[in-house]
């Protein structure tokens, strides 16, 4: 079970953008979090991805409370969660080639260069990236191609939980469908749980087992 318990968070402790948010995702379940721009759902997504420490509340992953954030989080918890953000150009190092972007998490946990390269290639193929594209840098590919690489980076460690924060907001309909299908194939194969954050009710309702409105999980 993935649990967000009474989370209060923001970048100014005096004016948090998230207050008392509670949400659970069961193993293998896809939960959509629906809310308007600026409501705080992306901040909550960063808390869920262990990238932002909340001011109050608790994140519990598979029964284990989270006490460290970013690199201070235990490796077993860091690698349990994969995350994809809305803007791939802000989340990918422009100096790296796509194969290196995808392999970043593998290198961070000490995989050998050869092992990381092989796993990165396998995951790239799963998200629809060709070998030729893997040699390019972010500025040399489209938003859709770069987002495929960012999704591959999120999946390369085979996490048990996925957080997709407006993953398809900048993409056309065909690329959106392709990436959603990749996530669903991964979930079916690995039994992963998904938190999909967005403002498109039609997409979330079609994609997820249930959709929760922001107003239902957080205080105004």
Describe the structure concisely.
With 220 residues, this protein is of the alpha/beta class. The chain is built from ten helices and nine strands.
Global shape = globular
Number of helical segments with 4 or more residues: 10
Q: If strands are numbered along the chain, what order do they take across the biggest sheet?
A: 6-7-8-3-9
How would a crystallographer describe the biggest sheet?
5 strands, parallel
What is the mean predicted local confidence, pLDDT?
93
Helicity, in percent? 25-40%
The arrangement of helices and strands along the chain is: EEEHEEHEHHHHHEHEHEH
Number of strands: 9
The span between the termini is 26 Å
Query: Radius of gyration, Cα only, in angstroms?
Result: 17 Å
Structure write-up:
The protein has 220 residues and is of the alpha/beta class. 40% of the residues lie in helices and 22% in strands. It contains ten helices and nine strands. A five-stranded parallel β-sheet has the order 6-7-8-3-9, sandwiched between helices. Strand 7 (161-165), helix 8 and strand 8 form a beta-alpha-beta unit. Helix 4 (98-108) packs across helix 5, helix 5 (113-126) crosses helix 7 (143-155) and helix 7 (143-155) packs parallel to helix 8 (173-190). The protein is globular, with a radius of gyration of 17 Å. The protein starts with a strand and ends with a helix. The model has no long low-confidence stretch (mean pLDDT 93). Residues 2-220 form the ABC transporter domain. It holds the Pfam family ABC_tran. Belongs to the ABC transporter superfamily. InterPro entries: AAA+_ATPase, ABC_transp_ATP-bind, ABC_transporter-like_ATP-bd, P-loop_NTPase. One of its GO terms (molecular function) is ATP binding.
């Amino acid at each position: 079970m993935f649990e967000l318990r009474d989370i209060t968070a923001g970048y100014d402790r005096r004016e948090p953008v998230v207050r008392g948010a509670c949400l659970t995702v069961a193993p293998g379940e896809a939960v959509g979090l629906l809310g308007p721009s600026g409501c705080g759902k992306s901040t909550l997504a960063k808390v869920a991805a262990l990238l932002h420490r909340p001011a109050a509340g608790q994140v519990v992953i598979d029964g284990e409370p989270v006490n460290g954030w970013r690199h201070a989080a235990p490796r077993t918890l860091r690698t349990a969660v994969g995350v994809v953000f809305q803007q791939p150009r802000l989340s990918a190092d422009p100096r790296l080639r796509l194969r290196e972007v995808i392999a970043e998490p593998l290198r961070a946990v000490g995989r050998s260069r050869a092992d990381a390269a092989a796993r990165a290639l396998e995951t790239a193929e799963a998200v629809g990236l060709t070998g030729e594209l893997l040699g390019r840098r972010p500025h040399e590919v489209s938003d859709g191609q770069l987002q495929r690489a960012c999704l591959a980076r999120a999946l390369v460690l085979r996490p048990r939980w996925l957080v997709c924060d407006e993953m398809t907001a900048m993409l056309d309909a065909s690329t959106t469908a392709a990436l959603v299908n990749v996530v669903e194939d991964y979930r079916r194969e690995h039994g992963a749980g998904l938190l999909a954050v967005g403002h498109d009710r039609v997409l979330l309702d079609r994609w997820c087992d249930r959709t929760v409105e922001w107003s239902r999980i957080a205080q105004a």
